[in-house]
Write a structure and sequence with these properties.
Layout (H helix, E strand, L loop, with lengths): L3 E6 L4 H10 L5 E7 L8 H4 L22 E4 L7 H9 L3 E4 L9 H8 L12 E3 L2 H4 L8 E3 L3 H15 L8 E7 L14 H4 L4 E2 L8 H12 L5 E7 L6 E8 L6 H11 L6 E3 L17 E8 L4 E8 L3 H15 L16
Parallel strand pairs: 1-2, 1-3, 3-4, 4-6, 5-6, 7-9, 11-12
Antiparallel strand pairs: 7-10, 8-9, 10-13, 12-13
Helix pairs in contact: 1-10, 6-8
Length: 345
């Protein structure tokens, strides 16, 4: 079988270089080209010395589409649409790790990201895909909008309960924590070492840009409008997301029944591991992998469920999920090239 020629635009960002790491080991992929505006002409191994003698590709300009069957764009919002248009013209598929193809509503995109869709017709040809929840929506569209890291951990945590009708309206409270790689490679006061080391605090309280994406996904699962309170926090770690999700249940439950619902929902999903009763999900156990671990808890005193979800924000929250989506796009087994075992420590 001919290998899939893959290109990465934005290969020197954190998610971009994670794509490089994972795609180099994908048995059905030929990494054809890597692009970076900031480091054009340099070897990627000069930017990331861990790749020395493994991947010494020269970083090209953005015009790599002709070499590819599929292009991954790992760029700030507002920059991927033009590449999607070029890909479409050349019959090349595109998977966007940015925000440009995540929201259905152009108005919501403008409200939260301060930009407008330049090519609205492209959005009719794209599909948003958390594989475990949306793979059935993929109908050979040439563009996939890869989900955000917070929405992935949160949607997977809530999907079984919402589909089962267990969630009281407007009772969802989401407390999420992310490692600093989630903020990207650009330095800011928040991610500057003296400010984030030995520190822990919320940010963008009830105003984070992932809120509309979370609500869009949950509303479609519930078949009605779902509103959430979402508060992210910055952890002094390189990678990982932990989301603790609280909601009131529509009727009294037991921890055993709630666990049974989650196990049934995810029984055929390799990358979602529902933990045994009494265990608590820990992001250490998913590091460098495409797994999402979920632990299910129930507070009978308050009739409130507590769901803990952990992912590696660079893998299941970005590059790994993008490759899972590529596997769907090219009719490969979803776990192809993603069979990584998390380290024990």
């Amino acid at each position: 079988m001919k290998k899939i020629n893959v290109g990465i635009i934005g290969a020197t960002g954190y998610a971009g270089v994670e794509l490089v790491r994972l795609l180099l080991l994908h048995p059905e992929v030929n990494l054809a080209a890597v692009s970076s505006v900031s480091y054009e002409g340099k070897k990627i191994s000069d930017v990331y010395p861990n790749l020395k003698d493994i991947c010494d590709f020269t970083l090209e300009n953005e015009d790599i589409i002709d070499k590819c069957d599929v292009v991954f764009t790992s760029l700030p919002h507002g920059l991927s649409e033009k590449f999607a248009k070029k890909c479409l013209e050349k019959n090349v598929k595109l998977i966007d790790l940015g925000a440009d193809f995540r929201l259905d509503s152009a108005e919501e995109y403008t409200k939260w990201y301060g930009k407008t869709y330049e090519h609205e017709d492209l959005h009719k040809l794209s599909v948003y895909c958390i594989p475990e929840l949306h793979r059935q929506n993929y109908k050979n569209q040439p563009i996939i909008g890869n989900p955000g890291c917070y929405p992935t951990s949160i949607s997977l945590a809530l999907a079984p309960a919402i589909k089962a009708g267990l969630v009281v309206d407007n009772s969802i409270i989401i407390d999420s924590k992310s490692g600093v790689t989630g903020s990207g490679r650009g330095l800011s006061d928040t991610t500057h070492y003296p400010n984030c080391n030995e520190a822990f605090s919320p940010y963008k309280v009830a105003s984070h840009r992932h809120t509309p994406e979370i609500e869009q996904t949950l509303s479609k699962l519930a078949d009605k409008k779902v509103a959430v309170t979402f508060v992210p926090h910055l952890l002094p770690l390189n990678r990982g997301i932990e989301s603790t999700v609280y909601f009131n249940t529509t009727s009294p439950l037991t921890a055993e029944k709630l666990l049974e619902i989650y196990r049934e929902f995810y029984k055929n999903e390799k990358f979602v591991r529902v933990l045994d009763e009494g265990n608590v999900a820990n992001l250490r156990n998913v590091k460098y992998s495409n797994y999402c671990d979920i632990s299910v808890h129930y507070d009978a005193h308050t009739q409130r469920a507590v769901i803990v979800s952990v992912i590696d924000n660079m893998v299941k929250g970005a590059a790994g999920q993008a490759i899972q989506n590529m596997n769907i796009m090219f009719n490969l087994k979803e776990d192809t090239g993603l069979d990584y075992i998390p380290p024990a420590f």
